[in-house]
Write a structure and sequence with these properties.
By secondary structure, this protein is mainly α. It contains 3 helices and 2 strands. It has a two-stranded antiparallel sheet with strand order 1-2. Helix 1 (about 30-95) runs antiparallel to helix 2.
Amino acid sequence: MQSQNKPIELKFVNYGNGKSYIYYQDSYLLTQLRYYPYVQFVIIGLFLIIAYFLFSSARKAEQNQVWLGMAKETAHQLGTPLSSLIAWMEFLKTKGVDDQTVNDIRKDVKRLENITDRFQKSDHRQNCRKKNIIKVI
């Protein structure tokens, strides 16, 4: 105890010139309370970090949903002109336009249809089922 705190000196006047010393140290509870604010700061810091990551992931998920909605809307809007182009292609075939020209238009329309289908299928989620991976492999 002497190494932790300076002892308190007591002088006894009634009992002669006697001196006594009182040695003391901090209690266990006081020692624990000294570290309590640091523990609180760590806990609050962890809470803030977790809250930030949760908010960030929620924001990213919402942003992904917006992009997905825009992709589906774009695919939907592309469908109308594609239908018109397919009709014009049939019309040109009936008017006797060169087969090479109609085939070139058909290839371009087919590419646009593939892109539209990919956009439209981007929202469809696959059916996930639990399976034994060892049997599947």
